[in-house]
Amino acid sequence: MRSEPLVISYLRGYSFTETAANTGINPKRVDNALQRAKKKISQIS
């Protein structure tokens, strides 16, 4: 699963539940993917 669409959805202000509904992905997987993406971003900056 690629996290870019999830991050874009998050940055646009969608909740985990809304993102999950829009992508058909389990909300827990959305949450986990966003947490991993946030961690990677924080390591870069």
TrEMBL record:
What GO molecular function annotation could you give as one example from this UniProt entry?
sigma factor activity
According to its UniProt entry, the protein's GO biological process terms are: DNA-templated transcription initiation
Protein name (Swiss-Prot/TrEMBL) = RNA polymerase sigma factor 70 region 4 type 2 domain-containing protein
Q: Where is the RNA polymerase sigma factor 70 region 4 type domain?
A: 4-41
On the tree of life, the source organism's domain of life is Bacteria
InterPro entries to which the protein is assigned, alphabetical: RNA_pol_sigma70_r4_t2, RNA_pol_sigma_r3/r4-like, WH-like_DNA-bd_sf
